[in-house]
């Protein structure tokens, strides 16, 4: 067993483990997704301090935050216009995956919807410089790229197509940068707005994906974050005046994946977020012209949501850690000095809980795996839960997770692995579970269980598994493929039958998922065998099913049909449906209800098993 034990790189440390059971952490507010005003004097951000994510605004130097009246629906993103006159808000009605785009004045007036009407879902690429024109993608059966004037609501459709997303537009709106393609196989196209002509930016390498891109400051180049040319994602520049030339590599590391790049408004520099082994973040500032890159002290173990003020004098981001909820930090780009946006004096609970250990192990076929282990106080072995993240192109990272801390407080160890298909470990690893490779991902969970027992962490008969979204699918898949290995499970918003999933999910979600899961026609036999419902007769342990009533990503029927099948066979199960929620549980009360139900289910059933096995 190879275990890394590293102190969390935060300004606050976890409490030392004691010999008494810890109290579960008290729910606390989280602030995230900052959007600085153009002059850098104010910051809009999202917060669940009122119970559901909404928009709050505060001065950088002093004063409490003020809630912006943006309606009762949860807000997923906010962005300040370059002229300072508007805030754009991405809203999720009923918490569902379908989103709408609304604009509002910074004083809360003139709020109205500008995109995402009917069944269309709207996402925001950004603003054209020096004004209030939004670059937007609307998606239903197909995608369409458009420009929307925040003041008048006037819309200009630039392009339509399958699996299409608008990334950027030149200042004169003459050329647009589009992203095309399914998951893990995306590419960039240039669109001549006047003629409608489109051309692929670079030749197909036959591997990798390009997910982020934008025009350089002079409009004669495109900068892109891609793993099409290297195992770990890097930043490249494409010279539009010399299309025959291969891309130039601007920034890349052999020990870390480039997770995201945020360019400044003038296009002269960018904030680079690096994903180091295991999922910890590092931050650097890169001068695009000189290539000089400067490291900046990371104010938390996991960073995200980086955004420059339009004048370039302020960089905002979100920081979090295992014992520290998300909060907004400010970075001075000239000095690299970070400081928190102390928006109120509300008590926080970020000094409670345990820090995890980064653990290395091997899959049954020898593939290197890793994960984060949260140990309760006192000697092991313990009742243990394996937690499986969603995606699958996501990653278990040492961020804030109150569910893990609640389980540990009840004496249950948690192991959160990154099985094959997870991001953060390179192009090959993220594609290793495509199609029939999914059998390997399912077996990885069993390998984790074996490892935990052999290492003395878990006791046989006291292993549980939990997961949400793709992780919920993996829970069901492991329970039917490895009967007897786990004593209980919790599957949240998980696919149970690929046939019903593809038939009932949003059309653009289904189209993008074919490259990852398989084509429901061509790969019908494979998808049938990979569907947990096909083998539901093998599931004979207590399972809790949790779903949002308004989920249209993984429709709520996916859990309902499992509950029905288990009820028919008399298998103990629970079925919790949360009203007013979609795929992600955005209301704090509902998220807490799901956590409480999960903690109660696992502690009860794993402890009950302990009385049997001794």
UniProtKB/TrEMBL annotation:
<keyword id="KW-0645">Protease</keyword>
<dbReference type="GO" id="GO:0004177">
    <property type="term" value="F:aminopeptidase activity"/>
</dbReference>
<feature type="compositionally biased region" description="Basic and acidic residues">
    <location>
        <begin position="341"/>
        <end position="351"/>
    </location>
</feature>
<keyword id="KW-0031">Aminopeptidase</keyword>
<feature type="domain" description="Peptidase S9 prolyl oligopeptidase catalytic">
    <location>
        <begin position="404"/>
        <end position="607"/>
    </location>
</feature>
<dbReference type="InterPro" id="IPR029058">
    <property type="entry name" value="AB_hydrolase_fold"/>
</dbReference>
<protein>
    <submittedName>
        <fullName>Dipeptidyl aminopeptidase/acylaminoacyl peptidase</fullName>
    </submittedName>
</protein>
<dbReference type="Pfam" id="PF07676">
    <property type="entry name" value="PD40"/>
</dbReference>
<dbReference type="InterPro" id="IPR002470">
    <property type="entry name" value="Peptidase_S9A"/>
</dbReference>
<dbReference type="InterPro" id="IPR001375">
    <property type="entry name" value="Peptidase_S9_cat"/>
</dbReference>
<feature type="region of interest" description="Disordered">
    <location>
        <begin position="330"/>
        <end position="352"/>
    </location>
</feature>
<dbReference type="InterPro" id="IPR011042">
    <property type="entry name" value="6-blade_b-propeller_TolB-like"/>
</dbReference>
<feature type="region of interest" description="Disordered">
    <location>
        <begin position="1"/>
        <end position="34"/>
    </location>
</feature>
<dbReference type="InterPro" id="IPR011659">
    <property type="entry name" value="WD40"/>
</dbReference>
<keyword id="KW-0720">Serine protease</keyword>
<dbReference type="Pfam" id="PF00326">
    <property type="entry name" value="Peptidase_S9"/>
</dbReference>
<keyword id="KW-0378">Hydrolase</keyword>
């Amino acid at each position: 067993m190879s275990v890394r034990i590293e102190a969390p790189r935060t300004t606050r440390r976890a409490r030392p483990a004691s010999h008494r059971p810890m109290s579960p952490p008290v729910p606390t507010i989280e602030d995230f997704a900052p959007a600085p005003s153009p002059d850098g004097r104010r910051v809009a951000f999202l917060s669940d301090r009122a119970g559901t994510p909404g928009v709050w605004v505060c001065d950088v130097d002093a004063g409490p935050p003020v809630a912006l009246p943006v309606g009762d629906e949860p807000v997923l993103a906010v962005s300040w216009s370059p002229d300072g006159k508007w805030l754009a808000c991405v809203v999720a009605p009923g918490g569902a995956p379908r989103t709408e785009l609304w604009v509002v004045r910074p004083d809360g007036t003139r709020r109205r919807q500008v995109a995402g009407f009917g069944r269309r879902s709207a996402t925001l690429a950004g603003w054209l410089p020096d004004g209030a024109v939004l670059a937007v993608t609307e998606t239903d059966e197909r995608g369409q790229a458009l420009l929307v004037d925040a003041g008048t609501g006037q819309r200009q459709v630039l392009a339509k197509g399958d699996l299409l997303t608008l990334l950027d537009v030149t200042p004169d709106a003459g050329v647009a940068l589009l992203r095309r393609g399914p998951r893990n196989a995306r590419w960039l196209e240039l669109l001549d707005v006047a003629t409608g002509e489109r051309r692929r930016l670079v030749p197909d390498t036959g591997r990798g994906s390009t997910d982020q891109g934008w025009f350089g400051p002079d409009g004669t180049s495109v900068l892109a974050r891609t793993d099409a040319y290297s195992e770990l994602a890097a930043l490249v520049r494409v010279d539009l005046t010399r299309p025959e030339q291969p891309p130039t590599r601007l920034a890349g590391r052999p020990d870390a994946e480039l997770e995201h790049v945020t360019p400044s408004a003038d296009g002269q520099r960018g904030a680079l977020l690096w994903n180091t082994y295991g999922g910890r973040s590092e931050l650097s500032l890169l001068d695009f012209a000189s290539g000089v890159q400067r490291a900046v002290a990371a104010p938390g173990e996991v960073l995200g949501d980086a955004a420059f003020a339009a004048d370039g004098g302020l960089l905002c981001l979100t920081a979090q850690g295992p014992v520290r909820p998300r909060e907004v930090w400010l970075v001075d780009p000239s000095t690299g000095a970070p400081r928190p946006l102390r928006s109120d004096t509300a008590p926080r609970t970020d000094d409670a809980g345990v820090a995890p250990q980064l653990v290395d192990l091997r899959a049954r076929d020898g593939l290197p795996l890793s994960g984060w282990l949260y140990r309760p106080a006192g000697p092991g072995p313990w009742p243990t839960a394996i937690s499986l993240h969603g995606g699958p192109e996501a990653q278990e990272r040492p961020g804030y997770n109150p569910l893990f801390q609640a389980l540990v407080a009840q004496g249950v160890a948690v192991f959160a692995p990154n099985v094959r298909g997870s991001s953060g470990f390179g192009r090959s690893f993220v594609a290793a579970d495509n199609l029939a490779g999914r059998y390997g991902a399912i077996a990885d969970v069993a390998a984790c269980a074996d490892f935990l027992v052999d290492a003395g962490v878990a006791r046989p008969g006291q292993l549980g598994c939990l997961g949400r979204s793709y992780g919920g699918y993996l829970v069901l898949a492991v329970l039917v493929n490895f009967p007897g290995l786990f004593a209980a499970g919790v599957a949240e918003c998980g696919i149970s039958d690929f046939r019903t999933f593809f038939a009932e999910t949003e059309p653009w979600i289904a189209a993008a998922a074919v490259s990852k899961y398989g084509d429901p026609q061509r790969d019908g036999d494979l998808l049938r065998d990979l569907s947990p419902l096909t083998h539901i007769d093998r599931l004979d342990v207590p399972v809790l099913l949790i779903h949002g009533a308004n989920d249209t990503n993984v429709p709520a029927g996916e859990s309902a049909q499992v509950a029905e099948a288990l009820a028919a066979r008399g298998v103990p199960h629970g079925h919790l449906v949360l009203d007013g929620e979609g795929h992600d549980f955005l209301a704090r009360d509902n998220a807490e209800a799901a956590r409480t139900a999960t903690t109660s289910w696992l502690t009860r059933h794993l402890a009950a098993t302990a009385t049997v096995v001794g």
